[in-house]
Amino acid sequence: QVQLVESGGGLVQAGGSLRLSCVASGTIFSINAMGWHRQAPGKQRELVAEITRGGSTNYADSVKGRFTISRANAKTVYLQMNTLEVEDTAVYYCKGEDWAGKDYWGQGTQVTVSS
Predict the structure, then answer these.
(1) Quick one: pLDDT band at residue 35, thresholds 50, 70, 90?
(2) What is the pLDDT of residues 58-69, one digit of tens each?
(3) Less crowded by CB within 10 Å, the N or C end of the chain?
(4) Confidence of residue 112 (pLDDT cuts 50, 70, 90)
(5) How many CB atoms lie within 10 A of CB 75?
């Protein structure tokens, strides 16, 4: 089993920056990809960014050029969010995927961007 804990959310003005962190525990050797998804009120959860153990990345078009995902080691992933927009307001969830394709989710951290 894998447990994921996010931190770093908060309230920021439009144009500001935040950095989210996610730390995994448990059977971390089984984790391949890690990433961030978000869910705004009344909307479906959507992919923000993901990174494989080999360092390959994938971003949603809406955050390209503003957000950067990075991985410090096998169990820690960051999301640097710059030039935040009101539309980025959402609960951000860390996701881990093991080599068998099973997904693990964190509890989520709230990001609120004010105008």
Answers:
(1) very high
(2) 999 999 999 999
(3) C
(4) very high
(5) 18
Tokens 């927009």, residue?
A: 85
10 forms beta bridges with 111
> For residue 78, what is the enclosing H or E element?
strand 76-81
pLDDT digits (tens, 9 = 90+) for 82-92: 999 999 999 99
Q: What is the dihedral of CA 95, 45, 65, 96, to 10 degrees?
A: 10
Kindly state the DSSP code that residue 84 receives in the 8-state scheme.
-
Cα separation values, 60 from 1, 5, 35, 47, 63, Å: 28, 22, 11, 6, 6
Calpha distance 13→78 (Å, rounded)? 20
